[in-house]
Structure formats: structure tokens, C-alpha cells
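C-alpha cells as discussed.
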């Protein structure tokens, strides 16, 4: 009997549980406090700090099933999804991990036992790769496991660069690293592939086992680690395809049944079409991303989700689906998953469905515009070839898929320049690679040291220098002018976390040796003081005082507590559907992002301000205490951010019966210390995501005073009282509209009058109508209307008009195309005016210039232009 995915994953967990592994729940799809990752893309992500040595794992052996997303950056599988047997945007990774416990022999033995005894795979069909210098791993496979030598493939370095290999894993340019061994399975000779050269579809990688045994320093040296670890990953969909004896992940029972139901719904029974694979994969990824709080937008994670949804919609259109359909697949997907996940997703079903529907409606409007634009571009073509630049514009700006563009062009017998399109795609990929959050390099301070923060109430603490980093390298000493990063054993400086920015201040050895701290960040268990040596020097092991900027800290603290009050007020007024999406707390203002699908009006903002200020005026005391995370119960009503990773002991900020939040930030002792709260800005930053900017205390007062001053200026301008200002503005606007209408009518009259004068001054030379005139104090925008009207009167025409307007001189020339072969508008201007003092623009048929009023000789230089034009006309005959 074929094993299904849930059964396979349970066998995996049970196996490693019996091998004394602690079963841990997979982490969020949104990595916590890790700028190198957009999404969780491997099972090891949540254990990164254990591998780095920043924290000690509470369990020496762990096993997990981790939901992963691989789209964008280093792992960009999006374009492959649906067109290969193995690629997915969303997949599940089975993993077992050891932190200083077992190593190579046990890890390999576990894998072999599970695959051959529990999953009953044929031993002769199992192949492994080994890093070329890792003799230990080779011997384990050959001598201990007794694997045939032919089934062990040695993998070397690429381009003769040390450790640049598929079988040597590195977390970054520096830090933990080590060789790996990958396990492949032979699906059979009916598929293409060669184990020595090109694996193809025949040899499927089912398991990767990494042995983390070195620390790579800044010089590229490998230093053996005192604690060696094991990191493994096996794709659930891949091992399922092997155990179900099918050639593609999309042929396993789960996907087969899902695609079948989608095909019935779409009423297209060609279930082998690749577009069904795309849609099945993308609905899964979209559902889980939205369930974790990601919403479609034009940046970062939201942009990835938007691309996934739009790609699926495009493939629906390829299958002939013209109506909205993708959001309706949420219900179909949920039907196919197990009970625990089904319960969780059913709770969010309406929300997920609504988000996808809104995005689908929005994209359909864009698609319609893009299709109209494509048809316009096709009409403009002088040849039967659509340039790659146009294709890329339609693809990138309007989301028209390449296949859809090709299809429309094919119907109209138009060729697409795919080669040029791919060049533009490559440029975009390179830009994306350069800007990607995946490629942001961070220094890894791999030390078995810990910085402790004692600065909640102590603003000056005696500390010892543990490490100094200068230009990315560890140094013993820095001198005046050196910009460096300093790690202390204990500190009063708060490192940037929880939306709160880091402290600034000074590290003072004495009055002659001072380091100015411009920012403070956290990396693992280390607090990094970033700044510059402004006096004297500092060395490792120096004793000093860490003194924060107390005034700045108080401002930040007030804003942080106000953020908690704002969050609580929003939930009180609009319900618990309000979900925090991010925050930024600085000394100048606070910013709070939250998801809410309904519209908020100005009166709603006023209500929120009133609620927050009422809490402030009540002078409510604030309690901050610690609690073991496991002991927190649902009835405690403590808010935590879903994507945040918390320590085992958490800090709770308790504002009486108003707000309880897990938070490591700094806060005031009572609400009245905030002083006053004002919302200064309210924005819609994405579909269903809103942003509030606010200020507190003195800055709130300054904000009000500034607004009052603006009101006084306006009242003085309108010569009215403050309580009548709105009436005055409305009355002014009405009068202004009347005047504008009168001006428009007057302009129409002037246009008719000037047109008659110009027609009267028209002269005809060699069947060419020549109109040259100047009009005083005439809006230059209206000159275009006159020219358009005059050109329609004659077949061959040259028109030159000039005017003074708002301290500038304008001149415009129009020539009908049928005579532009011997005289052009830009030629007339360039031969009669100095380019250095005139702003010139134009082409063969129309051109114009403008210059300052003190250059008025140009306005009256029409006689020179007239002579030039007459000479050109005569020469043409």
C-alpha cells in the first residue's frame, strides 16, 4: 500500500523520537530577527543561533517538520514551478538535528536505517555524494554501511575555489560550515539522467546531511569547532514521490487529488497540463503566507505573494478561465489537508479568501489595461515583430504572462522577440540579486561570549570590553578616528529589537578615552555598540562606563508605551481582528502598522486619540515582570507577535486591564509620563494594511502649536475668525471657480479673435501657407490650440508664433509633415537662436523654446526667421 504524506511524516517523527530526539514544532514562515532571509527556507532556520554558538540548544537532539517557502533571492524557484517534477514555492522539510551530541556515523546510520528498514527502499538504488576531502564520511558509507563504491560519488570544488562545492555547506562568507553528504534515489532507466554527470529526473535527491564542524574566519581559514553539529533536510514531497512510486511530486496522492478537484471546478479536464501544477502549488503557498499575516503589496514579502497569486491567475487564463476563480480554490485546498491544519485554516478561511479575492479583482483590472495596451502596441508596429523591451514592460508592469502575450501575438500573426525580452529579464534579475535581502552581508561574531543588558533602570554601568571589530576584523585596539563595533560583558545600551531603535551615548574609560556610540544592535546573545573613537584609544579587557543618552532614551520609552496603548485602543474599538504588522519606535515619533480590512475614517482616528489620551490622563501604573513562556495560558490574554521568536523566559508589559504584551523594550512607570498623544499621519500602505504615525509629550505639543500657527496664518490671509475659516475657504473656492470659468470663456473669445487675425496675416508662397506672428501676454498653452486649428485649414503650412508670459518668452513653430523634407522646425530654431540661453525642444514637425524676459530681442527677431524660411522655400524650388 502506498504511503501518503501525513503517514510518511509521522513515521519520520516517530523514528527520531525513538532515537531520543525532541519533537519541536516548525517555526513561522517569517524568520524572526534575521535580515538574511525573506522567508523560512529550511528546517535549520529556527536553530541558526544554536549553530552560530549564540545560544545553547535546550535539547541535544531535535526533529521537526518545517513549512518552507523558496521564492526570490538565492532560492528562486518560481519560474520552474509547474514545469519540472521537483520545484515548489511551498514545501515541507523533514529534519533531524544534533547540537554537540551525535555526529557523522550516527547521522548516516539513522538515515540508512529509516530509508531501508522503515521505508523499505532498495539499497542498490541509493546513491550518495561526498565532499572530496571528507574521507571520514566516505569510509562510513563504504565500510560501516557497506554501500557499493559505484554508489558513492566524490564531489570536488567548482572553478578550483576551495570549499566552493555543492557538498560543502556555509551559512555565510564567515561562520559555521562543513561538508555534507547528499542521498539520491534512482527512479529508473525510463527517465533521463546520469549519476556521474547530470542527475536529470532519474536521480532524485531525497536527503541532505550537513556536518557543521568548522568556523570560517574572515581570512577564509577553517577552525575546528569545539561543539560539532548535524543539520539534515528531507523534502516531504520528494520522499513521498519515491514511496508512492511516481516520477513527479505532482503525481503523489495529495497533488493528484487536489489537481483533479481544481480541474473539475475550472471545467477543464486536461489534468496533465502544466498550468494545473502551477495553480495547485500557488494556492497552497498563497494560503499559508496569508495565514501568517503576509498581504499582497509592491515590496518585500508582499511582492512575492503578489507574484505568486498573479502567476496562478495567468495560468488559469491559459486554461481558459476568464472569471474570478483563484480565491474559490481556498475551500478546495482546505478539504485536502489533515484535521489539525484544517482547524487552523478554517478559522482564517474568510480572511484568506477575502484577501485573495481583492488581489484577483485588482489584477484583472490591470490585466485588462495591459491587454488593451498590448493591442495598441501591436497596431503601432511597422513590422511583424514585437520588441523584447515592450514585452518586458507588459510583463513587469502589468503582469501579463509571457505565454499570454505570445498567445495574443500568435492570433495576430506577430512574432515576439524573446531573445531581447530575456536580456531585460537578466538585467532585472541582476538588480534583484544586488538588492535582495538574501545578499545583505552581516558580520557573524562567532564567540562563546554573552553580552548582558542591565539598562532597564541603570543608565550608567561599569563594563569590560570583550571584543573590538574594525573593518570587519577582530582587533585588539582602536584609536581616535576609528569607526568600530564594540562588545561589552554588560551594558546599559538597549540593542535595536521589538521595533525599538538602539540607544546612543558614550563608552568612557576616562575623560581622555571616549568612544561615541551612534547605534546599538543585537546579534544572537551579543549586543553590538556601533560608533567612533572620538578621544584616545580602547583595548580589549579595558574597564569603562557605558553611559546612554538618557534624554533620548526617555523619549523612546514614552513612545514605546504609547504604542502599546495605541494597539490596545485599536483592538478595543475595532475588535481583535486588528493584527500588528510591524512598528518603529524612535525618539521623534512612533509608527504602528496593522492589518484591518475595513475603511477607517477621520472620526475613527479621533476616537483612537481620545481613548489613548484617556488612558494617559488616568495615570495608570505599569507592571513589567517575567514569566516562563510555557506557563502562559490563553486566558491570560497576553498579546504576542506570531512571527516573533521568544526566549523561554519572557518579559510581560502589563498596563492594568488595558494591555498585556510580550515585549523586551523599555517603558515608562505610569501612563501620565507619556504626557500627551497625537496621531500625525494615517496611511494605507498595502491591501488591508494601515499605518499610523504619532508623537507624544513635548513633540505632541509642538505639533499642535504648529497646526495652530498655520490656522492663524490662514485666518489672517482670509481676514476672518477661526470659527468661520471653513466658511471663508468654501466661499473663496466658489468665487475662484467662477473666475476660472470666466477666464476660460475669455480665453475662448481671445482664441477666436487671434485666429481670425492670424488667418488675415497668412501669406502663400509656392503653395505653402506661411503664418508668422507675435501675440502679447498670451498663455503659451493656448498657442497649441491655435496651431492645431490653423493646421487643419491648410494642406501645406509653416506657423511661427511668439508671446510673453509670466516673465518668460515663448516661441513655437509648427510645420506640416508634407514639407518637412526640406525644412524642419528644430532646424529653424537651432539656426536662429543661441542654445545656451534658450531652452529648446522639438523635432522635424514641431519645436518650441522659452527664455527669460530680459532676452526679449528673441521675441522680436521674427524678421530673421521669416528671411530664413523664405530662403529655404525658394531653394526647394
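Sequence:
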Amino acid at each position: 500500500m502506498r504511503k501518503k504524506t501525513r503517514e510518511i511524516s509521522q513515521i519520520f517523527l516517530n523514528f527520531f523520537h525513538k532515537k531520543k530526539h525532541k519533537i519541536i514544532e516548525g517555526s513561522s514562515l517569517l524568520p524572526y530577527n534575521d535580515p538574511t532571509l525573506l522567508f523560512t527556507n529550511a528546517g535549520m532556520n529556527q536553530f541558526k543561533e544554536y549553530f552560530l554558538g549564540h545560544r545553547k540548544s535546550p535539547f541535544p537532539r531535535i526533529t521537526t517538520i518545517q513549512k518552507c517557502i523558496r521564492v526570490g533571492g538565492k532560492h528562486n524557484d518560481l519560474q520552474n514551478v509547474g514545469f519540472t517534477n521537483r520545484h515548489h514555492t511551498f514545501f515541507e522539510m523533514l529534519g533531524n538535528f544534533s547540537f554537540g551530541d551525535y555526529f557523522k556515523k550516527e547521522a548516516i546510520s539513522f538515515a540508512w536505517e529509516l530509508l531501508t528498514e522503515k521505508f523499505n527502499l532498495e539499497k542498490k538504488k541509493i546513491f550518495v555524494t561526498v565532499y572530496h576531502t571528507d574521507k571520514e564520511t566516505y569510509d562510513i558509507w563504504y565500510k560501516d554501511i557497506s554501500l557499493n563504491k559505484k554508489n558513492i560519488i566524490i564531489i570536488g570544488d567548482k572553478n578550483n575555489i576551495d570549499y566552493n562545492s555543492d557538498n560543502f555547506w556555509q551559512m555565510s562568507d564567515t561562520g559555521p560550515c562543513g561538508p555534507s553528504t547528499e542521498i539520491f534515489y534512482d527512479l529508473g532507466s525510463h527517465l533521463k539522467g546520469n549519476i556521474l554527470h547530470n542527475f536529470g529526473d532519474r536521480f532524485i535527491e531525497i536527503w541532505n546531511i550537513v556536518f557543521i564542524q568548522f568556523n570560517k574566519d574572515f581570512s577564509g581559514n577553517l577552525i575546528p569547532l569545539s561543539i560539532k553539529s548535524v543539520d539534515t533536510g528531507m523534502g516531504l514531497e520528494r520522499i513521498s514521490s519515491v514511496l508512492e512510486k511516481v516520477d513527479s511530486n505532482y503525481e503523489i496522492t495529495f497533488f493528484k487529488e487536489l489537481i483533479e478537484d481544481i480541474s473539475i471546478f475550472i471545467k477543464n479536464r486536461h489534468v496533465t497540463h502544466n498550468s494545473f501544477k502551477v495553480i495547485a502549488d500557488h494556492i497552497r503557498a498563497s494560503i499559508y503566507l496569508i495565514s501568517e499575516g503576509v498581504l499582497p503589496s509592491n515590496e518585500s514579502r508582499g511582492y512575492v505573494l503578489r507574484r505568486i497569486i498573479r502567476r496562478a491567475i495567468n495560468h488559469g487564463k491559459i486554461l481558459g478561465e476568464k472569471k474570478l476563480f483563484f480565491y474559490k480554490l481556498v475551500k478546495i485546498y482546505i478539504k485536502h489537508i489533515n484535521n489539525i491544519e484544517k482547524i487552523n485554516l478554517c478559522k482564517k478561511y474568510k480572511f484568506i479568501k477575502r484577501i485573495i479575492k481583492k488581489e484577483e479583482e485588482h489584477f484583472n483590472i490591470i490585466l485588462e489595461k495591459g491587454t488593451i495596451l498590448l493591442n495598441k502596441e501591436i497596431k503601432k508596429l511597422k513590422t511583424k515583430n514585437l520588441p523584447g523591451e515592450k514585452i518586458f514592460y507588459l510583463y513587469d508592469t502589468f503582469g501579463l504572462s509571457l505565454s499570454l502575450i505570445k498567445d495574443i501575438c500568435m492570433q495576430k500573426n506577430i512574432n515576439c522577440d524573446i531573445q531581447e525580452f530575456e536580456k531585460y529579464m537578466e538585467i532585472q534579475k541582476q538588480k534583484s540579486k544586488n538588492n535582495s535581502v538574501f545578499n545583505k552581508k552581516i558580520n557573524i561574531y562567532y564567540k562563546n561570549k554573552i553580552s548582558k543588558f542591565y539598562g532597564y533602570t541603570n543608565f550608567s554601568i561599569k563594563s569590560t570590553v570583550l571584543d573590538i571589530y574594525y573593518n570587519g576584523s577582530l582587533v585588539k585596539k582602536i584609536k581616535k578616528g576609528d569607526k568600530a563595533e564594540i562588545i561589552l560583558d554588560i551594558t546599559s545600551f538597549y540593542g535595536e529589537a521589538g521595533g525599538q531603535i538602539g540607544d546612543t551615548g558614550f563608552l568612557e574609560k576616562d575623560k581622555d578615552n571616549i568612544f561615541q556610540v551612534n547605534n546599538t544592535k543585537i546579534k544572537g546573545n551579543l549586543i553590538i555598540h556601533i560608533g567612533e573613537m572620538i578621544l584616545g584609544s580602547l583595548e580589549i579587557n579595558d574597564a569603562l562606563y557605558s553611559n546612554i543618552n538618557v534624554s533620548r532614551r526617555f523619549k523612546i520609552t514614552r513612545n514605546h508605551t504609547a504604542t502599546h496603548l495605541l494597539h490596545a485602543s485599536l483592538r478595543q474599538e475595532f475588535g481583535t481582528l486588528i493584527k500588528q504588522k510591524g512598528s518603529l519606535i524612535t525618539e521623534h515619533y512612533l509608527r504602528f502598522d496593522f492589518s484591518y480590512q475595513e475603511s477607517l475614517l477621520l472620526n475613527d482616528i479621533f476616537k483612537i486619540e481620545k481613548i489613548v489620551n484617556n488612558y494617559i490622563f488616568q495615570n495608570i501604573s505599569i507592571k513589567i515582570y517575567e514569566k516562563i513562556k510555557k506557563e502562559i495560558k490563553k486566558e491570560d490574554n497576553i498579546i504576542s507577535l506570531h512571527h516573533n521568536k521568544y526566549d523561554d523566559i519572557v518579559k510581560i508589559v502589563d498596563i492594568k486591564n488595558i494591555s498585556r504584551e510580550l515585549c523586551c523594550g523599555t517603558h515608562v512607570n505610569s501612563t501620565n509620563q507619556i504626557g500627551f498623544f497625537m496621531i500625525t499621519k494615517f496611511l494605507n500602505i498595502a491591501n488591508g494594511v494601515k499605518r499610523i504615525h504619532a508623537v507624544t509629550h513635548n513633540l505632541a505639543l509642538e505639533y499642535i502649536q504648529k497646526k495652530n500657527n498655520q490656522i492663524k496664518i490662514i485666518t489672517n490671509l482670509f481676514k476672518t475668525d477661526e470659527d468661520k475659516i471653513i466658511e471663508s475657504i468654501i466661499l473663496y473656492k466658489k468665487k475662484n471657480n467662477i473666475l476660472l470659468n470666466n477666464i476660460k470663456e475669455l480665453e475662448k473669445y481671445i482664441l477666436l479673435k487671434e485666429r481670425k487675425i492670424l488667418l488675415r496675416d497668412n501669406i502663400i508662397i509656392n503653395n505653402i501657407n506661411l503664418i508668422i506672428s507675435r501675440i502679447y501676454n498670451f498663455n503659451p498653452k493656448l498657442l497649441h490650440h491655435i496651431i492645431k486649428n490653423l493646421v487643419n485649414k491648410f494642406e501645406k503650412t509653416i506657423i511661427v508664433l511668439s508671446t510673453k508670459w509670466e516673465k518668460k518668452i515663448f516661441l513655437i513653430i509648427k510645420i506640416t509633415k508634407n514639407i518637412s523634407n526640406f525644412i524642419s522646425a528644430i532646424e529653424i530654431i537651432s539656426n536662429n537662436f543661441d542654445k545656451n540661453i534658450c531652452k529648446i525642444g522639438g523635432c522635424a514637425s514641431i519645436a518650441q523654446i522659452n527664455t527669460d524676459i530680459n532676452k526679449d530681442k528673441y521675441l522680436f527677431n521674427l524678421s530673421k526667421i521669416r528671411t530664413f524660411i523664405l530662403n529655404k522655400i525658394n531653394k526647394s524650388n
